[in-house]
Specification:
Elements (H helix, E strand, L loop, with lengths): L1 H16 L3 H12 L4 H7 L9 H37 L18 H14 L4 E2 L5 E3 H4 L24 E3 L5 H9 L4 E10 L10 E11 L4 H15 L6 E8 L2 E10 L16 E10 L1 H6 L8 E8 H9 L6 H4 L2 H4 L5
Parallel strand pairs: 1-4
Antiparallel strand pairs: 2-3, 4-5, 5-9, 6-7, 7-8, 8-9
Bound molecules: phenylalanine.
The site of phenylalanine has 10 residues, from strand 8 and strand 9.
Length: 339
């Protein structure tokens, strides 16, 4: 009996010293395992006088039961402690401020481009995109600008070879579309264009939005009506447009389109240089030579075309004074176009 108490005490001590479940398991094996103390006691059975054996066996079984109960209790406690430790280590402070994701914004050029597409697709225009590398024919010759034409000088051009160049104008898309599609045509063609030009308001790469309408009975009035609607939606409800005579080889007559200054309402301010008007785009009635080049009969069909610089519109609309801001991608600038 004393011997049992001593063993239980010893086991209790070993169990209390165990710091984790693995150590506790090892302690348990020392007493209850195959090579443990209890098993060793059982093996001594043979050495004991026959009449003493039942009593001895009872004692050993009682010891085993006490030890099993004791270890079970310790295991239970250990499990609880380990769970508590784990929960404490993985605790999350839900009151801490979260890590905010930086929100992106559409680039002003993309915004204006999308807005233009919205405005004109509302008037029934379809988007058509031409290639950025063009050949001389589509960029110039078919647009009534033959090789010796002085208007070629107006667009300082990046030539890749004698025949291929980076397109200087989205007008090349007019020809590509008219070769494919017969009138009625209502086309909108956005895209990058390239010119050897570089100052505060010009960049060697910029974006244009081309428009082309060809059908029976199209007149300059249709052009002005559509541009008026465009100006009102893009700038202000009270915007007006005016046409001034101009020259492009591929339109006849050609016009420069001014929009009343949205900054001063037409009274005159630094933005419009005191004139009340801002030049926004070039346009005109499609030159009959261009229609002929595309197999469209100019006695049956007429049309108008316009082309505007998307950067220019964005600069006017958002009061941006240097075109370089649009390609530097400084987040402090871009973040102002959120929402
Ligand atoms: N392509 C001309 C330019 O780049 C703009 C334009 C387009 C003019 C269509 C008239 C008609 O300046």
């Amino acid at each position: 009996m004393d011997e049992n108490d001593r063993i239980v005490e010893e086991a209790e001590e070993a169990a209390s010293e165990a710091e984790d479940s693995r150590a506790l398991y090892e302690a348990r094996m020392k007493f209850l395992g195959k090579a443990g103390k209890v098993t060793a006691l059982m093996k001594r059975m043979k050495e004991i006088a026959a009449e003493m054996r039942p009593a001895f066996g009872k004692q050993v079984n009682a010891l085993r039961e006490r030890l099993e109960a004791m270890f079970a209790e310790h295991e239970e406690k250990m499990k609880r402690q380990e769970l508590e430790r784990k929960l404490a280590a993985e605790q999350v402070d839900v009151t801490m401020p979260g890590r905010r994701k930086r929100e992106g914004a559409l680039h002003p050029v993309t915004r204006v481009k999308n807005e233009l597409i919205d405005i004109f697709s509302g008037m029934g225009f379809e988007v058509f995109e031409g290639p950025e590398i063009e050949n001389d024919y589509y960029n110039f010759t078919a647009l009534n600008t033959p090789a010796d034409h002085p208007a070629r000088d107006m667009q300082d051009t990046f030539y890749l070879t004698d025949e291929f160049l980076l397109r200087t104008q989205t007008s090349a898309g007019q020809i590509r579309l008219m070769e494919k599609k017969k009138p009625p045509i209502k086309m909108l063609s956005p895209g990058r264009v390239f010119r050897s030009d570089d100052d505060a308001t010009h960049s060697p790469m910029f974006h244009q939005m081309e428009g082309l309408v060809v059908d029976r009975g199209i007149t300059l009035c249709d052009l002005q009506g559509m541009l008026d609607k465009f100006a009102k939606e893009m700038f202000s409800e009270t915007s007006k447009t005016r046409l001034r005579p101009s020259y492009f080889p591929f339109t006849e007559p050609s016009v420069e389109v001014d929009v009343s200054c949205h900054n001063c309402g037409g009274k005159g301010c630094p933005l419009c240089k005191g004139t009340g008007w801002i030049e926004v785009l070039g346009a005109g009635m499609v030159n009959r030579r261009v229609l002929e080049n595309c197999g469209v009969d100019p006695d049956e069909y007429t049309g108008f075309a316009f082309g505007m610089g998307i950067e220019r519109i964005a600069m006017l609309k958002y009061g941006i004074n240097n075109i370089k801001l649009l390609t530097e991608n400084d987040v402090r600038f871009l973040e102002q176009f959120k929402g």
